[in-house]
Amino acid sequence: MVWDQDKEATKDNYASQTIVLDQILHELDTLNIEQKNNQRFRVDVSAEALPALLSLLKGRAGYTQLSAISCVDWEDEFELVYHLWSYETKVLVSAHIRIQYTPAVYVSVYDIYTPAGFFERDIYEMYGVYFEGSPMMEKFILTEWHGPAPMLKSFDTLKYVNDMFNWQEYQPDWLKEIQAKGGKVVS
Amino acid sequence: MRAENYQAVTHPESHEFELNFGPNHPGIEGNYALKVRVNGDKIVAAKADGGYLHRGFEKLMEGRLWIQNIALVPRICVPDPVPMEMCYALGVEDLCQFEVPERANWLRVLQLELSRIAAHLFTFGGHAATVGMYSNMFWGIADRDLILDMFEQMTGGRVYHMYTIPGGVRRDVGVEQLDKISDLLDYLEKRLSDYDNLFFNNKIFIQRARDTGILTPKQALSWGVTGPNLRACGLAFDVRRDDAYLCYDQIDFDIATETAGDALARNLVRRKELAQSIYIVRQVIDYLKKDKSTHIRCQIPNPLAWKVPAGETYTRVESSKGELSFYIVSNGGEKPYRVHVRGPSSMHAVQVLEKLVTGGRLEDVAQIMFSLDACPPEVDR
Amino acid sequence: MSVLDLDHVFFLLIVNIGIAVLWGNRPFVGKILTLLYILEGLSILTSYHVLLSGAVLSSSLTFTVMQQTVQWQLGVSGGFFALITFMAAGLATWFSSGVWARSYAPIRLLHSYMALNVAAMLLLLASNDFLGLFIAWELVSLVSFLIIAINGGRSAKAAYSYILYAFLGAMAILLALIIIWNATNSFSYVEVRHHWSTMSVNRQLIVVLLLITGFGIKMAILPFHRWQAPAYAYVPAPVAAFLGAISSRMGLFALFIVLLQVVGIDVIQTLWLPFEIINMQTFLLWLAALTLIIPTFIALRQTDARLLLAWHGIGQGGFMLLGILSANALGTAGGIMHVFNHASYQAALFFAVFSVSYRTGTADLDRLGGLVTRMPISFTVMLVGIIGLAGLPPMNGFVSKWLIYKALLDEGMPLLFLAAVIGTLGTILSVYKLIHNTFLGQLRLEHENIKEVPWSMSIPMMILASIVFITGYFPGLLLESIAAMQSTLGISVVDYHLGGVNTGKGNLNMIVVVSTMLMAIGMGALIFFVLGNPRKQVTQWDNYAGGHFLTSDMRYQYSHNFYPGLMRVISPLYRNTIFWLESAIVSTVQFMAHISYALFMQANYLLYLILLVVISLLWVLAV
Amino acid sequence: MSGQHIFLELILMPLLAFMIGLFLVLMMRKVRARIERRVGPPFLQPLWDIIKLYVKKMQISHGVIHDLGIIMLLGGYITAEVFLPVPGMSGFTSQGDIITLIYLMMVPSLGLALGVGQCANPNGSIGISRALTAMLAYDIPFIVVIAGACLYYGTTDLTEIIALQKSQQWGLLSMPILALAGLIAIHAMLGKEPFEIYVAPAEIATGPMVEMSGKYLGSLFVMQCLQIYTITVLYTSLFLGGGYTWFDFIPKLFLVALLPVMITVIFPRYKTDDVLRWLWKWPTGLALLGLAIVVLQG
Amino acid sequence: MKDVIPIQTNNTETIAVSKNSKNIYQQAIDTFSNFCRARSLFVLHYCTGCGAIELPPAMTSRFDMERLGIQPMVTPRQADILLITGYVSIKTLKRVILTYEQMQGPKYVIGICSCTVNGGMYWQSYATAKVLSEYLPVDMYIAGCMPRPEAVLTGLQQLMKKIEKGEANSWENYFKRYDYYLGNQQHLFGDTWHTPTDILEEARHYHLYGAESTGNNTARLIKYTVEHDLTKLDAPLREKDSMTKRGKK
Fold it and tell me: Is B24 on the interface with E (CB under 8 A)?
């Protein structure tokens, strides 16, 4: 299992990759592929078709690594991005889906990719998007946080901080010296 | 005490008890916790507990200017901060379509590889300390400090450098400085044989580390393991070569692999990588000495009113822990719309650690954690 | 002093049995029985100086069979053992006389069987020839069976296994007696000793081996040790203490009489096993050493406190045998002294363990913990007991073990010395686990309202604990009668004084050692309490847990598999060799027992029985 | 001996032991620091540590047994010092021989074990379990060494053993193999790497010391001093002919302590079962060989 | 060194506690105690934030803390100094307070890194506490992001000087003004916040129990523990109270 191919073969792979993805396109009708460069593909897909796409990519095209799942809050809907990497062809495919804002629920892909557990839990904590079927949905980072999901654009962290915390006067001698020389904080 | 810390558990019939590794425990790397349930000295179940280092980085970055975030990103991973800057800079450059000068890329590689050497020396020290070999820790961390000195001379920062900025680097590095680095590398190579004698060839260490925390290639792939941990299973994957960035495609280096997949193999992979990094840095020094260009960054707009074109990008960098990725989304504004950080340890420190520790022995918990080189701040962000 | 003192004792014992049988379940009767036992002990103690001078207490009870006059005489060794018996029985009855008795339904049976046991044991101790010994031996076996089976259930099963072993032992003894009779035409100890050399060497060998088998079964010497621990562990507290303390020592007493008084240690030393592979004495010493080590390390694995103690009882028996067989004044003294010491701390430990299980309802070491704040007296007793059992100064266990170590070193047996130390180290590991898992560590939620046991239970424990300490402080108290015993047996006598022994090549003066220890501990306390600020006690939840908060529902106690590293190394031994050997032997024995049982149950069993006896006789005569 | 004399020795012997022990600890820390390319602690650092711990304003106790354990620990070692002959003072050596001494040295361990048990911290209990396992491991070779030496000298009285060595030759020369095995055993007794299983910070957070604070920890530091002293004196008495005067006695002690310290820094720690296997294989084998030679000679 | 800024923390006002006039003997003992305390400092091995990365260099061969008599220690029971190395997230702060309360007086807190002063780089973060001295009495801040090992060592040496003079007493304020600190903690963690250590009793033990030790906040705490202590299973088992209040089943 050592992927030590020479560079020529790799280039062929890039070309063949488009063909593989095109084949998958035919099987899933709601798919839109965009090639950004040799090693980056962007795939837009409907939310319902994503699990099928991931299974196909993993099973047929050798995309064995789920690099990450990113969530973007577009204020009216969430965008989920699944970054998949193939060790054989050395291509990264980002599958983008959009899901509705309320109720923010989606299906888990834990059964296809084990690492999804971590990212889905993270998105659940940070955005409140619940993933059905994931065994790792208990809190991990924000176990002692009782506020709203903090990564939502609607959560104003500055306001929260001003409500919650005080500031102390901090005027050490060296700062006073600088201020005496005319230094000040640029705002 | 607090209900939120412990979901009520009934007293187990099987006489197991709970033991907490961390956050205040020498067997844990940084501020992190691993709750284990033990029977005798056998780990029955393990559960990682993070969030002690959570600062809300991603939220903070959304609230700051593109240029301000340069100061913020290296703080995501403390022992190995340069890849963080690098990854962010690559992303912004991709969005802005910057053409980065060649010399800047080589300077960046210099930084990256020195940082990798420092991080690996630190990891050896930590790993040695978990098995009670303190002299290796004392030596390794002292030698790492010499690299930090080089950083300080080059960038002005000892730990956090903020040297790499989108579009290039902040300063050039002179020939004298390169000579100093070259001398340091000579010294380190000499020291490596000492480390070999003391640590890597130490029979008792080998006895302890061999067959501890074995990852099979299949497990490694399905659990999302990357970096040296993956290479220790015999899978030669390295972002530097396979998803090449900067000028790594012009540099000659081997991908260090081992086949056993245990703590010893992971350690030996790092040991080999250390030698490879020294080799790479020597190439970079040669290039930088020959190259007479002084162009180290491209033209960047007024940083206080810098609007990055709308778009999204996914950039990956090989850090000393594994594959590090940033997903950056811009809506054309002065601040990032969304930055998602995928630290390599987010896999290693949670799912992989839990699974490797379970079924093992109490003696090996700390060793497995350090052999995975898990870095909690990357997990918590 | 009247020579018929033994009659008084026998009379008192009959009264004892009568009271127990007639009014055994009345609440006050336990105390009366205790008093009677004390009275019996006192009546021996008052004439103890006579015994020390070499005279005997005899009974008027005699009968004659096969031209042998069987009579009962209590010598100094019998007196010593009898005192231990009365101490154990008295304290055990006291322990069961109070609140405990109300919760225990078959109390009348318990009192009666206890009295019967004591009586039978006294008969054994006072026996003066092989016939009397055999009769008393069978009685002891029978009443032991009754008392072991008292609880039904697991203990009845163990009792059944015991009676099978006892049957085997009785057969062996009977066979030996037949051979002896055949050769010497007498059962009297003196006569047998006189005519011993007339037997052929092979026959001597067989007799010695048969007697060791027969009596060794009672003290559970290897490889007949499997029955004892379950039999002693699952009986009620007083019974367990009584059995563990003294009952199994009857085997040792018989062996002691036979090997030292009748056969003589010099004879043992000259006997060789077939093909001259090993000297009889060396063989027996190594058997004793194995009896010490193997049960001790089996005890280390137990999770039930009662089983743990029962297995240690077997192991300590090995210690006694090791001392007695060392053929050295110090060793013999150590061996006999260990009988007393073991009786005192073993009874104390059993009482402490049963106090805990009386209050908590369990003796499972994985379900206890932190009870020291709730049951301080039981803790103290157990602490004294485990220091004694582990053989550390200042308790009495140390003195007897020291004598045995010293004897083994003096006799030039360093490997046996090593074996003895390994046994002690295993004991230390095991008893720390016992006290840690019971009394130290986290107090469990369900044990929060536990209280100390009532006085009727704690006073006997405290008496035993103080005996353990006092005889450790002044071992000369015991060494006096042991020296008398040695001189009556005609073996070399230990040079003792109140504080210990002088050997010229390394002395022991416990008065100095213990006084220094007390003084040093005083100095330690002075350093600890005078220097520095006063202490402040915190709750057990205010504890380091890696920076986490502790809750009462969280199990934060290390108990199960207490020595995992050690077990990784030695558990293959348990599983494969020792365990295999043990179970092979035991199942063979049990298989034989089953076969003989099946044969016995046939309709014309008499025929089989006669056939068996005839065949054995023919075989023996042919040898 | 007059009562006054005895009383003086009772005070003086533990005190001297403590003072020499402080310097032994200092030497250990210094040597270790030097090999690790450090400067190491100041001259009186061990003493400052102990005093600082004793003058803490709060002494957290987990119960009476916690205190009792510490007292037993101090008392046990003070007793052991009185039974150890040193030049000019023999204490009660004639009243308790080397076997007594070995068992007296177990009393502090039991005290520590009880005190730690009361703390209700599994880390501490695991530490004790490992310490007792280690004791079983190193005591077996050590006992063989003692048995061999006692057989050779024909006595178990320490003063006589020393006198015999002074009149004939040192045990080191007459029983070199036993002396070597003994040296390995005392290395394990000192609990230094690779036998440091019961402290093991990364595994069980310093084990027995986990809940020890203030003077409790201070007493453990005192115990460390006394332990090093006791072990080195015992070894010196058995194999290096004890001391003629204090001037040759103290260098011998430092030499005996130095050897384990020098090699300890290059080892990681064994696992618990490996400690047992190793100690039961090599030092025990050596010790048995030495014993066989002694038996065959004698 | 510019980085080291020992600043006055907000506990300058002295609180009247019944002061025993000390005789010469006691003063001598105090002086000697402080002398020893200053020469032997045990640092708790707890990396609360990124500043901890500069502690290994400070401990190891290059800077070697041990030559100053400073040693790392594992558990709070053994340690004298709590180094808060950088930002403390709310989750960590709870553990820090638990750890601090488990330490024994005299105990010292050093806030390393700018984040402990005013939140530093993470001033707008919802997850980190900003002013450390609101929750714990801080003896000294060492600012910088992050302060170099030299700065850490210089700071520790300054603390040693303070200890030797007997001036490093801010830990006493935690007991004298417990109500204040508890109030801030409750503000952040909610009214149900409580730790296993009974601070008020310890204050009496130290003879530091004063007028400001108790107040509304401690009343709330006591009310909570009385209400919940003995009914909820996951509440701590308080040995002292349990015998009377938890009746026989």
Answer: yes
Domain ranges of chain B: 57-380
Between positions 338 and 377 of C, the ones with CB within 8 A of B are: 366-367
Q: Does the B57-380 domain belong in CATH 1.10.645.10?
A: yes
Q: What number does CATH give the domain A7-152?
A: 3.30.460.80
Q: What pLDDT sits at residue D141?
A: 92
Question: DSSP string covering B84-126, please?
Answer: HHHHHHHHHHHHHT----HHHHHHHHHHHHHHHHHHHHHHHHH
Q: Are strands C535-537 and D59-61 parallel, antiparallel or unpaired?
A: parallel
CA C131 – CA B28 distance, rounded (Å): 73
**What is the rounded CA–CA span in Å between residue B283 and residue E217?**
65
What ipTM does this complex have? Answer: 0.85
In angstroms, the separation between the Cα of residue D57 and the nearest Cα of chain C is 6
Residues 119-178 on E with a CB inside 8 Å of C are none
State how far the Cα of C169 lies from the Cα of C179, in Å rounded to an integer: 15
DSSP string, A77-145: EEEEEEEEEETTTTEEEEEEEEEESSS-EEE--TTT-TTHHHHHHHHHHHH--EEET-S--S-SS-TT-
Q: Answer whether A115 sits within 8 Å of B347, measured CB to CB.
A: yes
Prediction pTM value: 0.86
What does the alpha-carbon distance between residue C215 and residue B299 come to, in Å, rounded to a whole number? 102
Interface of E with A in 58-77 (CB under 8 A): none
Size of the D and E interface in Cβ pairs below 8 Å:
89
CB distance from E231 to chain B under 8 Å? no
The minimal CB distance from B141 to the residues E60, E126, E146 is found for: E60
CB contact under 8 A, A157 and B56: yes
Looking at B217-331, list the stretches that DSSP marks H as alpha helix, in order from N- to C-terminal side: 217-222, 228-231, 239-242, 263-290
Mean residue pLDDT of chain C comes to 81
User: Given CA atoms C268, C271, C274, C275 in this order, what sign does their dihedral have?
Assistant: positive
The tens digit of pLDDT for each residue in A146-181 reads 878 888 888 888 888 888 887 777 777 777 888 888
* C-beta of residue B83 within 8 angstroms of C-beta of residue B113: no
Residues of A in contact with E119 (CB under 8 A): 161, 165, 167
Q: For residue D290, count other CB atoms closer than 10 A to its CB.
A: 24
pLDDT tens track, chain E, 249 positions? 333 444 444 444 444 444 456 688 888 888 888 888 888 889 888 888 888 888 888 888 888 888 888 888 888 888 889 888 888 888 888 888 888 988 887 889 988 888 888 888 888 888 888 888 888 888 888 888 888 888 888 888 888 888 888 888 888 888 888 888 888 888 888 777 777 777 888 888 888 887 877 888 888 777 777 766 533 333 443 332 222 233 222
Of D35, D126, D196, the CB nearest to B135: D35
The region, left, alpha or beta by phi > 0 then psi within -120 to 50, assigned to residue C8 is: alpha
pLDDT tens by residue, B83-110: 888 889 888 888 888 888 888 888 888 8
Give the type of residue at D58: M
CB nearest to D58's CB, from E39, E67, E202: E202
B38 at interface of E, judged by CB pairs closer than 8 A: no
Subunits in contact with chain B (3 or more CB pairs closer than 8 Å): A, C, D, E
Structure tokens belonging to residue C285: 């010493």
Q: Name the residue ranges covered by the structural domains of chain A.
A: 7-152
Calpha distance B51→B157 (Å, rounded): 27
Q: Which residues contact E156 (CB under 8 A, 6 or more apart)?
A: E41, E65, E68, E70, E81, E110
Rounded distance between C-alpha atoms, residue D109 and residue D96, angstroms: 19
CATH numbers and ranges of domains, chain E: 1-9+21-167 (3.40.50.12280), 169-249 (no CATH)
Interface check for E1 against chain A (CB to CB < 8 A): the answer is: no
Q: Which of C405, C513, C528 sits opposite D215 (nearest CB)?
A: C528
